[in-house]
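Hello,

Our lab assistant flagged a job as stuck in the queue for most of the afternoon. It eventually completed. Since we weren't sure the result was trustworthy after the delay, we are filing this so someone can double-check. Below is the sequence as submitted and the structure that was eventually returned. Let us know if re-running is recommended.
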Amino acid sequence: MQPTTIPPITPALIAESMTYAQYMSLAKQRFADKLTTSDDPHYNTEQILGFTNVNFARIRRLEKTVLLTESIKTALAAQQRTWVWLVLVESWCGDVAQTLPVMKHIADFSGKIELRLLLRDQHIDVIDAYRTNGGRSIPKLICLEADTLRELGTWGPRPQALQAEMDVWKTQNLPFEEVIERAHGWYAKDHTQHTQTELATQIRAWAGSPVDSRLPTE
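-- returned structure --
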Protein backbone atom coordinates (compact mmCIF):
# COMPACT_ATOMS: atom_id res chain seq x y z
CA MET A 1 0.00 0.00 0.00
CA GLN A 2 1.30 3.45 -0.89
CA PRO A 3 2.17 5.77 2.02
CA THR A 4 -0.08 8.81 2.43
CA THR A 5 2.97 11.07 2.47
CA ILE A 6 6.35 10.94 0.77
CA PRO A 7 9.28 11.58 3.16
CA PRO A 8 10.62 13.99 4.29
CA ILE A 9 7.31 15.92 4.52
CA THR A 10 5.85 15.40 8.00
CA PRO A 11 3.42 17.26 10.28
CA ALA A 12 6.41 18.35 12.36
CA LEU A 13 8.04 19.88 9.30
CA ILE A 14 4.87 21.78 8.42
CA ALA A 15 4.67 23.06 12.01
CA GLU A 16 8.26 24.25 11.70
CA SER A 17 7.60 26.16 8.49
CA MET A 18 6.84 29.89 8.30
CA THR A 19 4.01 32.01 7.03
CA TYR A 20 4.75 34.54 4.29
CA ALA A 21 4.69 37.37 6.85
CA GLN A 22 7.08 35.52 9.16
CA TYR A 23 9.46 34.83 6.31
CA MET A 24 9.49 38.44 5.13
CA SER A 25 10.04 39.67 8.69
CA LEU A 26 12.97 37.28 9.14
CA ALA A 27 14.46 38.20 5.77
CA LYS A 28 14.36 41.92 6.58
CA GLN A 29 15.72 41.41 10.08
CA ARG A 30 18.62 39.35 8.73
CA PHE A 31 19.30 41.93 6.03
CA ALA A 32 19.48 44.66 8.69
CA ASP A 33 22.27 42.57 10.20
CA LYS A 34 23.94 42.40 6.78
CA LEU A 35 22.94 38.78 6.24
CA THR A 36 20.68 36.85 3.91
CA THR A 37 18.43 34.11 5.26
CA SER A 38 21.27 31.64 4.61
CA ASP A 39 24.19 31.10 6.97
CA ASP A 40 26.40 30.02 4.07
CA PRO A 41 29.18 32.62 3.56
CA HIS A 42 28.81 32.12 -0.20
CA TYR A 43 25.37 33.76 0.03
CA ASN A 44 26.47 36.61 2.28
CA THR A 45 28.94 38.46 0.09
CA GLU A 46 28.54 42.15 -0.68
CA GLN A 47 27.35 41.27 -4.19
CA ILE A 48 24.72 38.79 -2.98
CA LEU A 49 23.49 41.23 -0.34
CA GLY A 50 23.08 43.77 -3.12
CA PHE A 51 20.95 41.29 -5.07
CA THR A 52 18.93 40.63 -1.92
CA ASN A 53 18.17 44.31 -1.46
CA VAL A 54 16.88 44.51 -5.04
CA ASN A 55 14.80 41.38 -4.37
CA PHE A 56 12.94 43.23 -1.60
CA ALA A 57 12.03 45.96 -4.08
CA ARG A 58 10.80 43.36 -6.58
CA ILE A 59 8.66 41.70 -3.94
CA ARG A 60 7.12 45.00 -2.85
CA ARG A 61 6.26 45.84 -6.44
CA LEU A 62 4.71 42.46 -7.16
CA GLU A 63 2.74 42.47 -3.92
CA LYS A 64 1.03 45.63 -5.22
CA THR A 65 0.76 44.93 -8.94
CA VAL A 66 0.03 41.23 -9.54
CA LEU A 67 -3.40 40.69 -11.08
CA LEU A 68 -4.54 37.09 -11.17
CA THR A 69 -5.60 35.79 -14.57
CA GLU A 70 -9.03 34.37 -15.28
CA SER A 71 -7.30 31.06 -15.97
CA ILE A 72 -6.00 30.96 -12.39
CA LYS A 73 -9.39 31.89 -10.97
CA THR A 74 -11.15 29.24 -13.05
CA ALA A 75 -8.62 26.60 -12.03
CA LEU A 76 -9.07 27.45 -8.36
CA ALA A 77 -12.84 27.09 -8.70
CA ALA A 78 -12.34 23.35 -9.27
CA GLN A 79 -10.34 22.96 -6.06
CA GLN A 80 -12.46 21.00 -3.60
CA ARG A 81 -10.00 20.11 -0.85
CA THR A 82 -7.67 22.26 1.26
CA TRP A 83 -4.00 22.26 0.29
CA VAL A 84 -0.68 23.19 1.81
CA TRP A 85 1.77 24.83 -0.55
CA LEU A 86 5.15 24.20 1.02
CA VAL A 87 7.78 26.31 -0.71
CA LEU A 88 11.57 26.21 -0.28
CA VAL A 89 12.98 29.74 -0.40
CA GLU A 90 15.91 32.02 0.48
CA SER A 91 16.09 35.82 0.45
CA TRP A 92 19.07 35.92 -1.91
CA CYS A 93 17.22 34.11 -4.69
CA GLY A 94 15.92 36.24 -7.56
CA ASP A 95 13.51 33.57 -8.78
CA VAL A 96 11.93 33.48 -5.32
CA ALA A 97 11.44 37.24 -5.41
CA GLN A 98 9.82 37.03 -8.87
CA THR A 99 7.41 34.15 -8.17
CA LEU A 100 6.68 33.92 -4.43
CA PRO A 101 4.38 37.00 -4.44
CA VAL A 102 2.37 35.32 -7.22
CA MET A 103 1.93 32.22 -5.03
CA LYS A 104 0.87 34.47 -2.15
CA HIS A 105 -1.80 36.17 -4.30
CA ILE A 106 -3.09 32.78 -5.45
CA ALA A 107 -3.23 31.38 -1.92
CA ASP A 108 -5.04 34.47 -0.63
CA PHE A 109 -7.57 34.35 -3.46
CA SER A 110 -8.22 30.65 -3.06
CA GLY A 111 -8.94 30.58 0.67
CA LYS A 112 -8.18 26.84 0.48
CA ILE A 113 -4.41 27.05 0.15
CA GLU A 114 -2.15 27.49 3.17
CA LEU A 115 1.18 28.92 2.04
CA ARG A 116 4.09 27.72 4.20
CA LEU A 117 7.76 28.48 3.66
CA LEU A 118 11.00 26.66 4.51
CA LEU A 119 14.55 27.96 4.21
CA ARG A 120 16.37 25.75 1.75
CA ASP A 121 19.74 25.83 3.47
CA GLN A 122 18.27 24.77 6.79
CA HIS A 123 16.43 21.86 5.16
CA ILE A 124 18.94 20.23 2.84
CA ASP A 125 17.25 16.84 3.23
CA VAL A 126 14.05 18.33 1.84
CA ILE A 127 15.57 20.11 -1.15
CA ASP A 128 17.66 17.04 -1.93
CA ALA A 129 14.42 15.08 -2.26
CA TYR A 130 13.15 17.71 -4.75
CA ARG A 131 16.19 18.54 -6.86
CA THR A 132 15.70 20.00 -10.33
CA ASN A 133 18.03 18.47 -12.94
CA GLY A 134 20.33 17.52 -10.07
CA GLY A 135 20.47 21.00 -8.56
CA ARG A 136 19.05 22.54 -5.39
CA SER A 137 17.16 25.18 -7.34
CA ILE A 138 14.52 27.32 -5.65
CA PRO A 139 11.77 28.19 -5.27
CA LYS A 140 10.40 24.66 -5.16
CA LEU A 141 6.67 24.48 -4.49
CA ILE A 142 5.32 21.19 -3.12
CA CYS A 143 1.53 20.87 -3.20
CA LEU A 144 0.10 18.68 -0.41
CA GLU A 145 -3.36 17.74 0.73
CA ALA A 146 -3.75 19.51 4.05
CA ASP A 147 -5.28 16.64 5.99
CA THR A 148 -3.05 13.77 4.84
CA LEU A 149 0.05 15.59 3.50
CA ARG A 150 -0.30 13.42 0.42
CA GLU A 151 1.80 15.00 -2.31
CA LEU A 152 -0.07 16.12 -5.41
CA GLY A 153 2.87 17.55 -7.32
CA THR A 154 5.55 20.22 -7.52
CA TRP A 155 6.42 23.37 -9.44
CA GLY A 156 9.59 25.39 -9.82
CA PRO A 157 12.10 26.82 -9.77
CA ARG A 158 11.06 29.07 -12.68
CA PRO A 159 8.77 29.15 -15.72
CA GLN A 160 9.79 26.64 -18.37
CA ALA A 161 10.11 29.32 -21.05
CA LEU A 162 12.70 31.15 -18.96
CA GLN A 163 14.46 27.89 -18.14
CA ALA A 164 14.80 27.20 -21.86
CA GLU A 165 16.37 30.63 -22.35
CA MET A 166 18.76 30.07 -19.46
CA ASP A 167 19.82 26.70 -20.87
CA VAL A 168 20.83 28.50 -24.06
CA TRP A 169 22.66 31.22 -22.14
CA LYS A 170 24.66 28.57 -20.30
CA THR A 171 25.93 27.18 -23.60
CA GLN A 172 27.13 30.70 -24.46
CA ASN A 173 29.26 30.87 -21.30
CA LEU A 174 27.83 34.26 -20.38
CA PRO A 175 29.08 35.97 -17.20
CA PHE A 176 26.95 35.26 -14.12
CA GLU A 177 25.93 38.91 -13.81
CA GLU A 178 24.69 39.00 -17.42
CA VAL A 179 22.61 35.86 -16.94
CA ILE A 180 21.01 37.41 -13.85
CA GLU A 181 20.29 40.65 -15.72
CA ARG A 182 18.75 38.81 -18.66
CA ALA A 183 16.60 36.63 -16.40
CA HIS A 184 15.14 39.58 -14.54
CA GLY A 185 14.61 41.40 -17.82
CA TRP A 186 12.59 38.38 -18.98
CA TYR A 187 10.49 38.47 -15.81
CA ALA A 188 9.89 42.21 -16.20
CA LYS A 189 8.58 41.80 -19.76
CA ASP A 190 6.50 38.74 -18.88
CA HIS A 191 4.52 40.39 -16.05
CA THR A 192 4.05 37.00 -14.26
CA GLN A 193 2.04 35.57 -17.19
CA HIS A 194 4.09 32.40 -17.70
CA THR A 195 4.22 31.79 -13.96
CA GLN A 196 0.46 32.10 -13.70
CA THR A 197 -0.19 29.97 -16.79
CA GLU A 198 1.97 27.13 -15.49
CA LEU A 199 0.48 27.30 -12.01
CA ALA A 200 -3.04 27.31 -13.46
CA THR A 201 -2.20 24.13 -15.36
CA GLN A 202 -0.80 22.53 -12.22
CA ILE A 203 -3.76 23.58 -10.10
CA ARG A 204 -6.16 21.96 -12.56
CA ALA A 205 -4.10 18.77 -12.52
CA TRP A 206 -3.80 18.73 -8.73
CA ALA A 207 -7.50 19.40 -8.27
CA GLY A 208 -8.29 16.36 -10.40
CA SER A 209 -5.61 14.14 -8.90
CA PRO A 210 -6.84 10.61 -8.07
CA VAL A 211 -6.62 9.69 -4.40
CA ASP A 212 -3.98 7.00 -4.89
CA SER A 213 -1.54 8.60 -7.35
CA ARG A 214 1.37 11.00 -7.38
CA LEU A 215 1.42 13.31 -10.37
CA PRO A 216 4.79 13.72 -12.06
CA THR A 217 5.40 17.38 -12.90
CA GLU A 218 8.94 17.41 -14.19
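-- support follow-up --
The delay was a queue issue, not a problem with the job. The result is valid. Confidence is low (pLDDT under 50) at residues 1-5, 211-218. The chain has nine helices and four strands.
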